[in-house]
Amino acid sequence: MRWEPRTPPEGINVTPTHPLAEFATLVAGVAAVTVVVVALAAWGAEALVARLPAGVESALFGRLWDPGPGTDADPRAQPAGALLRRLARHWAENPYDLRLRVMEEPEPNAFALPGGMVVVTSGLLDQVASENELAFVLGHELGHFRHRDHLRGLGRQLVVGLVLAAAAGGGGAEALPALASAVTESGFARAQEREADAFGLGLVQAEYGHVEGADHFFQRLEKRHPEGPGDPVGAYLSTHPLTHERVAALRTRASRAGFAERGPLRPFPGDAGS
Amino acid sequence: MGAWIELALPLALLALGYFTGTGIERSHYRSLRVRESRSRRVPVINFRRPPDHWDVRDATLVTGNVVVSIDHFKRFLAGLRSLVGGRVKSYESLLDRARREALLRMKEEAFEGGYHAVVNVRLETSRLASARRDGRGTAGVEILAFGTAVKVARTS
Fold first, then answer.
1. What is the mean pLDDT of residues A220-241?
2. Looking at chain A, which residue has its C-alpha nearest residue B4?
3. Which 3-state string (H, E, C) describes chain A?
4. Residues on chain A touching B78 (C-beta within 8 angstroms)
5. Interface predicted TM-score (ipTM)
């Protein structure tokens, strides 16, 4: 056998695919599958959880938030709770035994918790200038109960979290699922906030005969955090619709439904009638 | 604003990885071809013993060692690939280059010592643990080529 000096042949151990082509196929494929799976999981979880009867929900979660007697130090918890129940009278099929708690927290906010518990922050109560304004915020939270959003959110977050954790556990590409979840999450949330706004507005109209004061809360928010229209990505990724969009939506809805937009405001906490 | 940064930073890292990684890879392949052609007269074989008709006068251990790391772009591609399966093409060229470089360094050591051939050549691969605390993830791989360099007086 004669030995001949040669250089080794090229390209046996390397697949001649351009890395960018592989990148494009993989990203497109994985993104498509992620979106489909997340959407299916979210939809399935929502559909299941929204069927949970309110009685079962109250039995499951009702005790969870019970603070025990005498722990709600804020004197405004009483009138706010009364206002909540007064509003709920206009919601005929209300299945919940509604309760309200005040949380010590300067940032104005309110949440609906499973089992019929509404939590408002002391910052919110400090800020509201009228009972009507607070009534709209509480009505908004009742809207979340009405549409079972508080449960949907819980079920969706649980399932989507599980799916994404499983996907991320499989390997890199961390940025993708995070983005997908942020976009779908806020997309759902924004639609829900609009619905809850509409429901709250209806309750305010039913209680007072006009909707004056309903948008005061947003107007105050906007004054504190002015958000220009120039940040579309930020707006899309935030869970709540832009406040000025919400104010505009409320106005349109009020005028379309024929609600009176002007009327007398009641003080909060009011010594009834003054 | 925060959303833009969250989106732009990974993309910038990917672009950085792609451009630096591709540039390095291309120039490395160029250098490999030139040097392989230059040292092609040193035969490298994996027989355990030199052929019987070689009159071996001297022998020594020669080694060639390479440590390579992946760039962010390759890592990203491999991460996606690990979701769906298939050839991890982004690592193939990396390991191909590392093996050839290790063999070349071994051959160059033999050549500079005046040896004529390398027999009983073996390749070893080991993974370097990353700096992450759990030691997972790939910091890089080490490829070691080693063999016995021989001086041959004449072949009959």
1. 58
2. A233
3. CCCCCCCCCCCCCCCCCCHHHHHHHHHHHHHHHHHHHHHHHHHHHHHHHHCCCHHHHHHHHHHHHCCCCCCCCCCCHHHHHHHHHHHHCCCCCCCCCCEEEEECCCCCCEEEECCCEEEEEHHHHHHCCCHHHHHHHHHHHHHHHHCCHHHHHHHHHHHHHHHHHHHHHCCCCCHHHHHHHHHHHHHHHHHHHHHHHHHHHHHHHHHHCCCCCCCHHHHHHHHHCCCCCCCHHHHHHCCCCCHHHHHHHHHHHHHHHCCCCCCCCCCCCCCCCC
4. 171-172
5. 0.74
